[in-house]
Design a protein that fits this description.
427 residues, alpha/beta, Adenylosuccinate Synthetase, subunit A, domain 2, four-stranded mixed sheet, 13 helices, 20% strand, binds inosinic acid
């Protein structure tokens, strides 16, 4: 089966980077299809750590082609910094291609992200302030600037000038903020265009041809299902579609091309930013998860909120994404907790809620209904097969499988590439 979509099954930060990196070894091409440098993942190879935001982690394999698809939004300065960072580490980026249709993050997008967050006050979303919301607003508003436009100085200059007429008024008159100079932006971005031109391609054609040739194609989602603009905890979501269906629009492939959907689901739950989180823990168990799981954002350095595994969420994720397989990550983080809790449903007053609600007011009033299981104390970080796991860990995984209804194909027991148990190889 040559094509797999990999998605985050919770609120992002499920450890997708490591699984992508693992699968990329067998993939001929890895394609990012949404989001921007609001994402961030850390991949540990041997003793070396790689932090990536935009470039798929497949780049660490010399023969894997990496694509930044049309659904991604690109901050060119960040992309260039990432290219330089990889070059310093001796990693070639010759196999990188960028969709000509991807939209470009402009300085005014970042400024607008910042000032709109400030003006929301206590109702803030807690964005990464990377300009994600504003750039997707311009895309939907049909005034965005695409990579192909950046590469043509005349087209680019005219788009910047037109856009700034409105943006500067907005910044000055509504947000009382500094304005931007068109010529300064054009000069700065022309240097980015010169540097990035060689990566431009019609990537949809390339992916199509690779699929026709029976090559292994991996579509890499960023963020997670509950941050999806339609299906997440709106408005506390990102402005793109991290769900599997978006691989089609964000990469330019038809739905009939997708063979498998792999959901990456952490053995517990975390969330960065604002919004309700039913299984959130504010006790010693929560501190254990944050400490042992190093739960700090790769992009913003913000501490992540931590809580128990929530099967209402994993069932929802399985349905919305059409999961065929799941990877349970960071199982080792649970080692040492005497009793583990799994949320199997919600209660709101006398009402039992088994499906993830659309209303945030309802979600905020939901009390988790827990099932308890004994934990384990043995170190599992060197284990290489499911049968070698302590009974407690096996039971825990079997229960997640039962509650979610999706077979577990991959289990993460540590941050290194080698600390991965494979039940089904997918490619
Ligand atoms: P934005 O994507 O910067 O607009 O942020 C919107 C929401 O998505 C905020 O709650 C962010 O914390 C969250 N978010 C965005 N990207 C990620 C990610 O890669 N991991 C986890 N949360 C994210």
């Amino acid at each position: 089966m040559p094509s797999v979509v990999l998605i985050g099954g919770q609120w992002g930060d499920e450890g997708k980077g490591k699984v992508t990196d693992f699968l990329a070894e067998k993939a001929d091409i890895v394609v990012r299809y949404q989001g921007g440098n609001n994402a961030g993942h850390t991949v540990v190879v041997g003793e070396e750590e790689f932090k990536l935001h935009l470039i798929p982690s497949g780049i660490l394999y010399p023969d894997t082609i990496c694509v930044i698809g049309n659904g991604v939004v690109i901050d060119p300065a960040v992309l260039i910094a990432e290219l330089d960072y990889l070059a310093e580490k001796g990693i070639s980026t010759d196999n990188l291609l960028i969709s000509e249709r991807a939209h470009i993050i402009m300085p005014y997008h970042k400024k607008l992200d910042e000032v709109t967050e400030i003006s929301r006050g206590t109702g803030k979303i807690g964005t990464t302030k990377r300009g994600i919301g504003p750039v997707y607003m311009d895309k939907a508003g049909r005034i965005g600037i695409r990579f192909i436009d950046l590469l043509d100085k005349d087209v680019f200059s005219s788009l910047v000038k037109n856009n700034l007429e409105e943006k500067n008024k907005l910044l000055d008159q509504v947000y009382n903020s500094e304005c931007f100079n068109a010529n300064a932006i054009i000069e700065e971005y022309t240097t980015y265009a010169d540097r990035l031109r060689k990566y431009a391609a019609d990537t949809s054609i390339l992916i199509y041809n690779m699929l026709r040739a029976g090559k292994n194609v991996l579509f890499e989602g960023a963020q997670g299902t509950l941050l999806d603009l339609d299906h997440g905890t709106y408005p506390f979501v990102t402005s793109s579609h991290p769900i599997a269906g978006a691989a089609c629009t964000g990469a330019g492939v038809g739905p009939t091309e997708i063979n498998k959907v792999l959901g990456i689901i952490k053995a517990y739950t975390t969330r960065v930013g604002e919004g309700p989180f039913p299984t959130e823990l504010q006790n010693e168990a929560g501190q254990h998860l944050a400490r042992k799981g190093h739960e700090v954002g790769t992009t913003t350095g913000r501490p992540r909120r931590c809580g128990w595994f929530d099967a209402v969420i994993s069932r929802y994720t399985a349905r919305i994404n059409g999961l065929t397989n799941m990877a349970v990550t960071k199982l080792d983080v649970l080692t040492g907790l005497e009793t583990l809790k799994i949320c199997i449903g919600y209660k709101r007053g006398n009402e039992v809620i088994s499906d993830f609600p659309a209303s945030l007011k309802v979600l905020a009033e939901c009390e988790p209904v827990y099932e308890e299981m004994p934990g384990w104390t043995e170190d599992i970080t060197k284990i290489t097969a499911f049968d070698e796991l302590p009974k407690g860990a096996q039971n825990y995984l079997n229960r997640l499988n039962q509650l979610t209804g999706v077979p577990i194909s991959i289990i993460g027991v540590g941050s290194r590439r080698s600390q991965t148990l494979i039940i089904d190889n997918l490619f």
